[in-house]
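Can anyone check this?
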Amino acid sequence: MGVPAPAGSGGRADPGVERLTDAWVAAIHARGFVSAGRAELHAVLSGAAWWTTAVVDGRAEADMAAEVGSELVAAHLTDPAALRCSLDVLATHFAERIGDPARQRRFTAAVGALSAGYARTLQERTRTEQDRISTAAFAARSAAENARWRSEARYGAVFENTALGISVADTEGRILEANRALTDMLGYRPGELVDRSVFEFIHPEDTPDMWPRIEAMLQGRVGHVRMEKSYYRKDGEQIWTQLVVSLIRDPGGTPLYLVAMVEDVTERHRLQVRLRHQAEHDPLTGLPNRALFFGRLTAALDACPRVGVCYLDLDGFKAVNDTLGHDAGDQLLRTVAHRLRDALGVDGHTLARMGGDEFVVLVEDCTGMDQLTATAARALDVLREPVALRGREVVVSASIGVVVWPVPPDTGPGAAPSPGGAAELMQAADTTMYWAKRDGRDRIAVFDPVRHRNDVHLFELAGRMPGALERGEFALDYQPLVSLSDGRVSGVEALARWRTADGEQLGPDVFIPLAEQTGLIVSLGLHLLHRACSDARAWADADPTREFVLSVNVAGRQLRQPDAVERVAGVLERTGWPAHRLQLELTESDLMAAGGRPTEALEELSRLGVRIAIDDFGTGYSNLAYLHRLPVDVLKLAGSFVSGHGTRGPDAGRSGRAVDNPVILSAMIELAHRLGLHVVAESVETAAQAGQLRSLGCDVGQGWFIAPPLPPGEVPGMLSRTVALGDGPG
């Protein structure tokens, strides 16, 4: 870079040239005329210093100084101040060396030539830059014109040939342009949409906020709007579109035009409607399904002060499926749905199928329980009409639970207004429907908050029972069995108790049915049997002279287990309690239902020596004829035959009542004795009852008058006593 010194000139060794170069570099670098470093400046200015010195010394022509000026411009020292700085450096350096007139003239000529060369080169460079800028500007303008032409051509092609409908409107909503796709979509001829207002195309199904959004965009507050919108074609047919409207502004931001792009989505919309209907309706009956019903119920609870629900379940529907087939069952469900819809739909009620053979009716703005029970009664009436299935008539009935929500606070003792939403309401309705099932079917049950809370409490208890069994919360009390002839204690009956962790004590009438429903009765029964046999073994070991029978209740479900006999035998072996002194009590209903394995289990247990007793005899079938076919040893008469409907428990003895049915009792006792059965009377609550039972020949008595249930620690003392029964009527 720069004007180099001639080869072999020795210019680099000239101390004067070196001083000039160093001074020139320092001055230019100090003022920052270029971004080059000292080394680069030195490469440029060392040659310039040599040639300038050579011109002043007369060793070179003045034209070489002009070349030095050109090189300064080439080195980007184009600021006029850089030229002035360079001249100052030269003047200072040569001030001591131009004493004679000849050197003065050569210095002046060198400075003039350098300045002229600098000016000429700078002018040529400026002209070149201007030409380049002009050429670039022309090229850019030409490119912009071409791009604009291409853009307009593309827009025109898209506008005319796209499948999307496109329109351009001014900010007043007046249509300025509309392409063929849009006019075809709406059923108009080309040009018929121009000059019409977009507000002419308001549709009844437009959402309320739609046109305010369009107006907001017309006013420039919103940049674009996207929505699904319905239009009526010119011929009146309805179509659905996906509409996108964008706002076009001028460079200053002022709204100019509205560009609308419209896509025909009618087929997609119809498909979505069909799919939504399928998702919200039962395919078999066409009724609203559970999802749609819950949506309407939730909305009604928010909007109405009171709603009513009728929860309906067909009685015996499984029998129709099992006997006539599932096709007949489906036909029955369709018939039921049509009848209910015709009978109840006219009142505007929502009828839905919840699944299986369950239907539900929603009564919005319910006036009260009278309206709801009348609606349920109409449903029962239409269902009771016979249905023709497979060439035969089938009689249908239903169980219906009705709930008014919220529940009035005066519905029952201790009731309170019902909290909660749709889920809680439907839980109450479902529970009430099952009350109707349990109460006999083909009827209406009205929601009772007190009964519902009790059901919920029982459900919670059932959930706690497995843990309670593991924690040892189940215990036994023992009620003596006393010979009515001499007052001697001949045995004890183990009575289960549940002492919960929170201190509540529950009787078997509460938790045994729950254990049977959940299946826990098998493990619970085995636990209680082991506990009772262990206690009895301890009492017998404490006094070997004691002879008594241990009576333990068992459920039919326990005997239906394939290893039922092995379980009982295992308990007897582990505890050491003799089989002939164990008595298992089975209710009459369980015994009558016994068949197959339960009967075999009873026979095997009897062969082991275990005594079998029928508990609560007289509350069920009361059929003595079947007893000789079963291995039964003891007949326990139900307490209702002894004390009737009188008071029971620790205060019962105050009434002084005798037995209510002496004739029936006498016949039953006599027949039982003829069959070789031992007879035990339960619920002996008075001395009169004890005496009368003794006179009728009853063998053993049990009840609060004789002895209350005792904890295990008090039983040994009781076994050694003789109970004073009193004379009583003979």
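Reply from J.R.: I decoded it. The radius of gyration is 55 Å.
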